[in-house]
What does this fold into?
Amino acid sequence: MRISSALAVVALVACSRHDREHDGWRARPLEQTAGRVGELAYTIAIPRGLTAHPGSSPDIVEYSAGSPTDRDALAPVVMIGFDPLPPATVDAAVGNAAPVAGDEVVRREAIPDGYIVTIRGPHHIAARVTRARGARGIDCMAVQADSDTDRNWLEQICLSLTIAP
It folds into this structure.
């Protein structure tokens, strides 16, 4: 399952803006929402004002402000995807996060039931969490087009991901 290619699209569509312009989104409360990707149900807390849009496959859901073709460039984009083969190591999780030249991996660690990898690029920051249940998993990627964005906020969003019973 590859939601990483969407990172490039988000980074290109959105303009790089000063960090203060993103404060309005960070000030919004996180609201619990639930959904299903592939064979797994999930819950996650996302900023108020983001709405679900079908992804490029039935195994991906994108939460964004506006439509996928007319986004609020200051808003984060959160993508949830089914992962039929979740990574088994931190190094594999970094590989799945697909850093490219110019990106810096600023966090990479094991967490309960998965991994977190955060990448800061020249014009974006992305937090990615994979949670596994057995041989299946769910990925969350929260991206904002501004490398000065507070990474802790994006990480908080993805770390709230749980696989529902």
